[in-house]
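[agent] plan:
  1. take the single chain provided in the ticket
  2. run structure prediction with default settings
  3. attach structure tokens to the ticket
  4. add a short note for the reviewer (M.T.)
[agent] executing step 1
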Amino acid sequence: MSLLNRFSKHFSLPWPRKVATGDFCKPITIIFQQFRAVLRADNHALEIIADMGEKLGGEYLFDRHYIETAIEDMVIAVHQAIDRINDLTNGRCKTLYPICDQLASRVRIMMSGLEDWQGPALGWLQEIRPRDWPLVGGKGAHLAEMIHDPAVRVPPGFVITTRMFHDFMDEGGLLPLFARFEAMLTGGVDNEAVLEETRQQLEDMVRVTGPPAAFLDSVGEFLARMTSEAGQPIFLAIRSSAQEEDLDFSFAGQFL
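[agent] step 2 finished; step 3 output follows
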């Protein structure tokens, strides 16, 4: 029996002291295993950084595909590290996800040369390119990649891009308030009441602001084409392309 196992028989560490369901203690063996998992995930991310530094700083031949692939590998590695941190802290560090995603989005925008408000409001999966990631999100980009693989069955579909979101917020006069709320989330705010008040104000304004008429017309045209090509009434699965949807407050998987 290892020394760690011997100690764990006699005591455990409180982590955290209080949670929604009451007090509990997590065995030190579990804490140690989860801490090692954090280190492994962190080391994996550092290995990707080191590999990029070596290749981009030396005399290696590389192309745009290598850089894009390395960036996506890095995003996945950082997300996995955040997963392990949340395992260790019982979900107390979930605010790291949107921060990571915002940084990743800025890097993708730099690579693509597109801002997230540029481009079409809707796009067919088969027409989406890797550089369109800032417009279509992670899941949309991956579906678009798989749809060209004959070994993978991907149903036809389209993506509502961030351009539509920007137009919706712009026409409704919501961009200033949204920018303020986003700054609170990323920069931190001491007064939780102010944060909640801003969130509620933004939610109320979104609820009373209708989508742009041109957007509704475009969606109708896309749906009509899908129905025509199917030759029969169709069923739709609507899903967010944001990675945050996989957290506790997911609204993903709406079926019509």
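[agent] step 4 note for reviewer: Residues 41 and 81 are 5 Å apart (CA to CA).
[agent] ticket updated
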